[in-house]
Fold these 4 entries.
Entry 1:
Amino acid sequence: MADMTITEVSQKYQISADTLRYYERIGLLPPIPRRKNGNRYFSEGMQHFLEMVICLRHSGVSVESLVEYVALIQAGDTTLEARQALLEEQLELLQKKQHDLQRSINRLEHKISLYKSGEIKEDKSYFTDYKIIEDK
């Protein structure tokens, strides 16, 4: 993995250059080194770090939590327990989302199967099935 420009990193990770600059400005990324001409370049190490940030963002970790996590990393090994706790908290949130999503998927699959089997007829609706309103 060679050094990459912000444009190359943007394309590789499908994240806008503006977002990368924003991440650097708020401290989510350490200061990005610059070449003599002022252009940012992302070393192999920085690319790996960015991959971690993007992965956590895609997992639903908030920017605020990530900024806190990065600050803890920069503070050194005295923050190992705090970092672990933060990640465990995020994992718990993701597992709850996963559970809720699976419940929704199961409900949709069941409803689709009712349509495919013909069990749902034109004269039925959620309102009558669940007795929200009475048939007239």
Note: The mean pLDDT is 89.
Entry 2:
Amino acid sequence: MQGLIPGMLPPTDTLKTNLVFALIVFIVYNVAGVVRNGFGYLAHFLGPKIGGFPWLFFLFLPIEIVSHLARPVSLSLRLTGNIVADHKVVGVVALMVPLLVPLPFLLLGTVVAIVQTLVFTLLTIIFIGLAVEHAEEH
């Protein structure tokens, strides 16, 4: 919301801030998974035990690692991209027609900030929920 004040940038305007937020989420959901399920949580990286395909672990392991490493990258890039795009649109419109025309875009910026907050929070909740669920065979 700080970015709606002319001349001020929000903290989420830079990738480094968003990456730190996403890394905190990454650490929290992995720690929550280990705390809830013990080190059996790490067994899900090797693939499902149901179905009897333990020899496919060499395929599942890299896929799961890349999948989990992509989560903080996705969270941070999504948030940065949407916030930066919002401010670029408002800036261009304000330069073209500076009087009263940027007002609807500022209101749209408020909606963007609220939606991005909800998306980041919802994805964090989903990641934690997936990490702490107790699978029967893992």
Note: The radius of gyration is 20 Å.
Entry 3:
Amino acid sequence: MNKLLKILGLAVPLSLLAAQPASAISLVFNPVSQDVALGDPAKVDVIVTDLNNQLVGTYDFNVHWNDSILSLASVDFDTFLDGPFDSFQGFDDSVSGTVNVFEISLDLLTNQDGNTAFRLFTLTFNTLANGLSPLSFTDNIASTGEFLGDENGDPFVPPVSAGRGSVCVGGNCQQSQPIPVPEPPVVMLMGAGLLGFAFNQRHRRAGVR
């Protein structure tokens, strides 16, 4: 009986561990933020990380930026989806401030090990004006609402986590921090405290007279 209880005691924690959801794969910009001089190019890598023993067989998503500050100069694909010879890859930048980038592997993904972060592609931007351009992703894989697919083309579970980035052109892009406004209950408490203090001071002065 004791032996059975020990086995059951081991089995329950193991089953709980197995039930834990897998961590989400992350799609990120590298560098997350950078400063460049007006007239100099800005280069941003798009990286897949937190793979957790999974392979990426396809991707299709959009990257967005401020088209008054940056313009896309080039998209340079890496080789981790077996490209350029054993993958189908391309991009569409017909919408200003947006590029749709896609690739699907036609081979065995031998350039990935399932755990090491890797680069999908590099975006090079021309700088048009001083200012801060946010960078962001939106998903585009048809019918799945996802960014990436596994070696079979299926979306990942849990869904991919998409990061954000920025490019500062010309410096002085630090946004001023807003002065924190107290929440209404805090304001009311402060007001009540001040009224009480004023009443007490008046009462004390009247007593002195």
Note: The two ends are 87 Å apart (CA to CA).
Entry 4:
Amino acid sequence: MISSIVSCTLDKQAKALRTLEKCRYEFVSADSIFLAGTDVNKLIANGRVDVSQLPGVALGFLSRDIPLSGVLNVRITNPTNNLAGIQQFAYKVEVEGREVLDGVSDLPIEVPAGETVVVPVKLRTNVYKFLSDRETLDKLLTFIQRTHNGATDEKVNLTFKIKPTLALGNQAINYPGYIDIDKEVDAEFLIKHGIIR
């Protein structure tokens, strides 16, 4: 009896996950992004992009712990006749193919058949490793500065990767790979979402 219930639960999760693989994804926006306690949107909007001057970042370099928190909004469209969803997933965010942050989200995602939903993914991670990578950081900061100064032809590739987890009682079973959501970010995108004013 118990084994049949566990099997049914796992089958249901696996079916919802297989459906999630068939969904279409679009990165919509980033909200309430805070780096070491400073609102990143205000930092960028003011044209000040030297993060090393922030007191929280300077202290973070000493402790190797620089907190970043925020929300990534992802639009998911389910073109199938089945429910798509997961209970928990690991994620990575890459800029130009280089990982800048990772973490785990335990907010369930459900996308009913034939519907589109915008899913907020809460970020909470340590970005010390990313801020220590001068090459990637300089490229990103140069892009932001040039865009702020009116350069509209600049673009940067952003990739959001999701690795779903299936729950089997108290045991977590990780999906064998990542679902990638790619977005080419340009000045128009930053202006549209109020990041650059």
Note: The helical segments are 2-21, 40-45, 55-63, 128-132, 134-148, 187-192.
